[in-house]
Amino acid sequence: xxxxxxVYHGFSEHSGISKKIHYQVKGxxxxxxxVHLCYYDFSPEGHRCRYVDNxxxxxxxxxxxxxxxxxxxxxxxxQYCLAHHIEFVYARCFQNANPVLICFFKKLKKAGIHxxxxxxxxxxxxxxxxxxxxxxxGLKVDQLFRNSLYPLMDAVVxxxxxxxxxxxxxxxxxxxxxxxxxxxxxxxLSALSAQPSPLHLIGVxxxxxxHGFDRVIAGIGEYYxxxxxxxxxxxxxxxGGVHPNHMNDxxxxxxxxxxxxxxxxxxxxxxxxxxxDVFNQCQFAIGSLGxxxxxxxxxxxxxNREYATRGIPFIYSEQDSDFDSQPYVxxxxxxxxxxxxxxxxxxxxxxxxxxxxxxxxxxxxxxRIQMQKVIDQLS
Length: 379
What we know:
single chain; 379 residues; alpha/beta; nine-stranded mixed sheet; six-stranded parallel sheet; 12 helices
């Protein structure tokens, strides 16, 4: 099948979302499909352009009008689909439903071209409450038009359990993983016993409130407020960007309150071997602990799958049917309580599962398998 994978933004070398999209394209190609990636970016000359693969299909120039035009013009994408006999358009939601996209997908439908949109997080409205006004305004536009946009498609792809979203049926898949890009965890487990070794926790994210890392920091603070000499030291390594407002308003007050500045390490963004080195210092990983803050109870996050692919045990608070019953997972309550660190310590005292065995449990979650599920369910 000839497929156009449509993205409404550009890519960053270090972005997890960018990597995920490239892995999805790779997964489709591994199933024998001809896939072309359409995206928006700047040319070396600074022009706003729409690309397919590395070729410019529309050059909007520079300046304010160019920025407006690239948001309103999909004629080049439509003409590309016709000229290259595209049979299926896989779009990734950017919370950007509007009349122009409605017109574009109407034309695709009339031309007999199948289309779906992946909505990575659903519901997503409450995630915008602390964003700047421009993004909140964009959401308002999306809210006005999304119930007219999605019925034009064959389906909505979701990582939730929702059977219908914005008036359209769903294709429910799991976030996938690319096994070639994720190395196996290589930490030598040591018993946390009479002479306990320190327990190192790792959380990897571009930190937002729904990650709930503040619950871990508060939990470590409570742990140290009553820790005995027989209990191991516990440290938390946060890898990824932290917005200054979140650092100053959320993290810093907790660090000051509990005086645990020497137990929490902020590494910033790390990639490749540098990221793996920090993983290999740690024994246990932190998934999302605040999805309830966004009104989400069921979600299949990419981070859980990446942790399992590395082969490291982890904790999270949402419902995720792929992992809820796995022996290498701890579940936290979906509330505002500090994480009880002693429960993680006790869990790790008896934990002997090897990284390779954890990894085997997610072999069915490869992007090759997950993306083919979408193709199989096209009407």
